[in-house]
Q: What sequence folds into this?
């Protein structure tokens, strides 16, 4: 194969992975702006989505399994908010961080015991693992287009939801000024639950569409969460659309470092970039400085 | 020579100019007040003086050296201490420990010395405790030394904060609205307290809304409006100043600010 | 007044308790437990250091496993790498004859020449010091979530680098780390004959560091750290160099983690990549939370106990789940740790048994918030 095509192949695989990071980053953003909590268990929603869908797909047709997985994980998300975060609004950031980390471990362990440590995957939505489409000379699995299309549709729908529907607007109002929103008759607590549910649902959807390509494994959540966070930070926390760009950047970076460096170091590049961005520009490329660092002047 | 010299200081938040080229001086031993309507930039000015905000331009001199761009802890070491508009005590500590924190910048043992209790360190610790106790007695709250800071009434928190500020041995004390939230009687006590502090040789810069307190205490008053200085003088001069009266009675504000 | 023991007395009691443990175990014919107990004492050192950063300075660190691994791996690499084969320049030749080196046999009985454990120890501490400063300086300017993510990301980097590098043994880790002769007849080693001796080395080290930190938190430095935790702005305005103090506390605790790593690596004769994993770092945080974050005694006790239970395999395959649940449970139900409320209950119980006039002055001032003094609001503030 020509080297140009190889580059394109890397680029597309980066975009594919990156779009999943983008979804995780959007999930971070949704919950962060609605509740002020950075949900470290975000990656677990993706893992659960894939796991549940794989199990359901054994009994029901694929589309039903996907819908079921998304619904179940959304329910889990709502439940987490009601059980843990509703009562804990007074707690310090330190405590909330620790609780979400605890949740991430517990969800992971539950997955390990409900299923097992085996790697699973959903069948390809169209075609199979060897079918490919020619795209400018590069061979692309049709599943890649499923991933990209799903992510794009999700992002657009979410944008419309937040911008033009009543619950979406209420959610944004609740995050920018909770007390004023409360006075305007918005039920802040329900908005927070909705944010958790929504964020879990899109995480689960991402977990389903990516499953045929990257497989589903009970330990996949934590690295996804960190890379998703890197994406959210690159874009600037609190800005869902910038998170998409951030996610794509992280994905492409990872794909290229796989091609240039020993495989074991590919994650190192991404984490190192995360640290550099955090240290140099914690409000991201498209964000404004806020409360992310200690200001002395 | 002035103790504190503010020269042409300017600061803005985003596009909003909070302090626009303000200059003034505080003479040693003076009680000077900064007044002005809400949003005039008084607290911003305070935060600039104590190093929480870095001025965009202009300079600040304290004593015989420039403290422009110093960080708050450096300014505290130089001899400027402050209280906050909302008393910000360390709520996990008791009252005495709060005041002991004030001694931090006048003591020197670091991690290693404190960890191994190097000879001399326990002695310094005892001296810190004693000095803090003295400050608490000075503000009349020695009986609350062991009380958790979170259990204090509002007025008591103010006084503990004052004791903590005094424990840093300041030459200049910045008081940010010390009278807010106090009743008439407590305000009168506060006034007496501030005078006593001045008699100790501490210069005082005061931001306050209560005009009775300000007129009663101040040697000199600076009036800010929309971030600009509009008048400066003795209490009687200020009371008779047309511009000031207009600002406070809600006259042609824009006109005044421009003049 | 609160019934509280003098610190000197409580340390003596703790030392006495630590000393009798081996005899009790020998009497109960359970001497084999000493191995896991020794290991949990070393892990407790990491958690104790974390307690300074999280409980006192109020800064979260999800990267302490990495510092443990930096200590352990540096020591393991330097004491297992055979320098006799190095084609060194003449000026380096003297190292081979110097006391910095140690001739011994490797696991297969071949003669090798490695650096001495003492050299490795100082190298490990130096590396941990440098890394802690490099990471801590920029990271500690970040707040809350951002700091958590930065330290987590740092831990992940260390973990991945260890996993991907040949000379750190990749996924297998390093085995065959020699015993460490500390001098004075003490040797850090996992040999059965030295089990009691090593238990005493571990408990002595822990006790020493506990006393150090105890002194530290009850000094101007401890108050400064707590002030930073409470209100960073006010602390800075009171003359505390907040950035420097946070960094110093972070570096100190990183050094403690690295030190525990060095000792434990010599004790178990090896180290694996899981020591640097995010789960390990999170576990240290869980243990600190379980001990009440800012209670040195609670943290030491709880972390020794829980780590011991975990190492004995009492949690079975639910090991990580137990720590996750512990984290959630404690932080959401009793954020100040389970021990303080228990102690309060005990104190109330003791107080109820005593005649009312013996309760002491602080009972007259219950801390139920500002509303309490509504009745004497008008009272003169200055007598």
A:
């Amino acid at each position: 194969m020509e080297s140009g095509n190889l580059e394109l192949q890397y680029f597309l695989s980066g975009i594919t992975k990156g779009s999943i990071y983008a979804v995780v980053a959007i999930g971070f953003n949704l919950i962060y702006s609605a509740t002020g909590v950075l949900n470290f268990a975000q990656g677990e929603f993706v893992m659960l989505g894939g796991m549940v869908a794989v199990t359901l797909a054994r009994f029901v047709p694929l589309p039903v399994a996907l819908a079921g997985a998304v619904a179940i994980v959304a329910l889990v998300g709502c439940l987490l908010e009601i059980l843990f975060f509703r009562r804990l609004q007074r707690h310090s950031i330190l405590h909330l961080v620790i609780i979400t980390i605890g949740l991430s471990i517990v969800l992971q362990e539950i997955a390990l015991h409900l299923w097992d440590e085996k790697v699973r995957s959903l069948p390809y939505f169209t075609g199979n693992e060897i079918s490919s489409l020619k795209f400018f000379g590069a061979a692309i699995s049709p599943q890649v287009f499923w991933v990209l299309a799903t992510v794009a549709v999700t992002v657009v729908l979410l944008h419309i939801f937040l911008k033009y529907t009543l619950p979406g607007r209420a959610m944004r109002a609740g995050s920018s000024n909770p007390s004023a929103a409360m006075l305007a008759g918005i039920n802040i607590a329900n908005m927070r639950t909705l944010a958790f549910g929504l964020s879990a649902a899109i995480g689960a959807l991402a977990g389903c569409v990516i499953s045929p390509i990257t497989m589903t494994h009970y330990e996949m959540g934590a690295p996804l969460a960190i890379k998703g966070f890197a994406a959210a930070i690159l874009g600037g926390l609190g800005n869902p659309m910038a998170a998409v760009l951030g996610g794509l950047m992280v994905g492409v970076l990872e794909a290229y470092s796989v091609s240039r460096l020993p495989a074991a170091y590919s994650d190192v590049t991404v984490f190192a970039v995360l640290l550099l961005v955090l240290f140099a520009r914690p409000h991201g490329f498209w964000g404004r400085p806020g409360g992310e660092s200690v200001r002395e002047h | 020579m002035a103790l504190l010299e503010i020269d042409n200081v300017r600061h803005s938040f985003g596009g909003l100019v909070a302090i626009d080229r303000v200059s003034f001086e505080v003479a040693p031993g003076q009680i000077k007040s900064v007044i002005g309507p809400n949003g005039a930039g008084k607290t911003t000015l305070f935060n600039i003086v104590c190093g929480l905000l870095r001025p965009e331009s202009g300079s600040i001199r304290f004593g015989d050296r420039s403290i422009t761009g110093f960080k708050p802890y450096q300014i505290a070491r130089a001899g400027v201490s402050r209280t906050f508009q909302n008393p910000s005590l360390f709520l996990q500590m008791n009252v005495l420990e709060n005041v002991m924190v004030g001694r931090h910048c006048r003591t020197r043992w670091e991690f290693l010395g404190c960890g191994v209790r190097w000879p001399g360190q326990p002695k310094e610790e005892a001296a810190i405790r004693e000095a803090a106790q003295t400050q608490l007695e000075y503000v009349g709250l020695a009986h609350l030394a062991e009380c958790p800071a979170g259990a204090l009434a509002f007025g008591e928190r103010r006084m503990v904060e004052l004791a903590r500020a005094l424990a840093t041995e300041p030459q200049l004390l910045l008081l940010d609205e010390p009278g807010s939230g106090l009743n008439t009687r407590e305000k009168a006590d506060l006034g007496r307290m501030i005078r006593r502090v001045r008699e100790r040789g501490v210069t005082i810069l005061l931001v306050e809304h209560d005009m009775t307190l300000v007129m009663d205490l101040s040697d000199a008053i600076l009036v800010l409006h929309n971030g600009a200085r509009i008048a400066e003088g003795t209490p009687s001069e200020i009371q008779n100043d047309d511009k000031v009266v207009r600002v406070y009675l809600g006259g042609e504000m824009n006109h005044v600010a421009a003049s | 007044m609160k019934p509280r023991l003098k610190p000197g007395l409580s340390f003596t009691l703790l030392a006495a308790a630590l000393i009798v443990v081996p005899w009790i175990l020998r009497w109960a014919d359970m001497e084999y437990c000493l191995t896991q107990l020794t290991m949990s004492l070393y892990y407790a050192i990491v958690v104790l250091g974390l307690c300074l950063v999280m409980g006192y300075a109020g800064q979260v660190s999800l990267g302490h496993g990495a510092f443990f691994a930096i200590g352990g791996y540096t020591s393991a690499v330097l004491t297992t790498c055979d320098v006799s084969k190095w084609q060194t320049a003449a000026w380096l030749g003297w190292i081979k004859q110097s006391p910095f080196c140690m001739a011994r046999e490797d696991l297969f009985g071949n003669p090798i020449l490695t650096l001495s454990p003492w050299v490795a120890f100082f190298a490990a501490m130096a590396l941990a010091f440098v890394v802690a400063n490099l990471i801590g300086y920029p990271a500690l300017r970040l707040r809350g979530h951002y700091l958590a993510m930065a330290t987590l990301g740092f831990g992940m980097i260390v973990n991945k680098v260890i996993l991907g590098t040949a000379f750190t043994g990749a996924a297998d880790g390093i085995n065959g780390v020699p015993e460490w002769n500390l001098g004075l007849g003490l040797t850090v080693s996992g040999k059965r004959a030295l089990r009691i001796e090593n238990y005493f080395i571990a408990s002595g080290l822990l006790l020493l560091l506990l006393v150090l930190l105890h002194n530290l938190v009850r000094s101007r430095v401890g108050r400064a750290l707590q002030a930073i935790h409470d209100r960073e702005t006010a602390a800075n305005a009171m003359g505390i160099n907040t950035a420097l103090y946070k960094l110093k506390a972070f570096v100190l605790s990183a050094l403690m983690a690295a030190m525990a790593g060095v000792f434990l690596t010599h004790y178990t004769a090896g180290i694996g990549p899981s020591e640097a994993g995010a789960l390990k770092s999170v576990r240290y945080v869980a243990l600190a939370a379980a001990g009440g974050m800012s209670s040195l005694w609670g943290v030491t006790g709880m972390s020794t106990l829980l780590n011991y239970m975990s190492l004995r395999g009492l949690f079975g395959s639910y090991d990580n789940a137990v720590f996750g649940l512990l984290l959630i449970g404690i932080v959401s139900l009793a954020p100040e740790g389970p021990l303080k409320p228990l102690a309060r209950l005990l104190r109330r119980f003791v107080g109820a048994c005593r005649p009312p006039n013996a309760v002491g002055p602080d009972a007259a001032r219950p801390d139920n918030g500002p509303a309490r003094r509504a009745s004497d609001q008008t009272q003169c503030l200055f007598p």
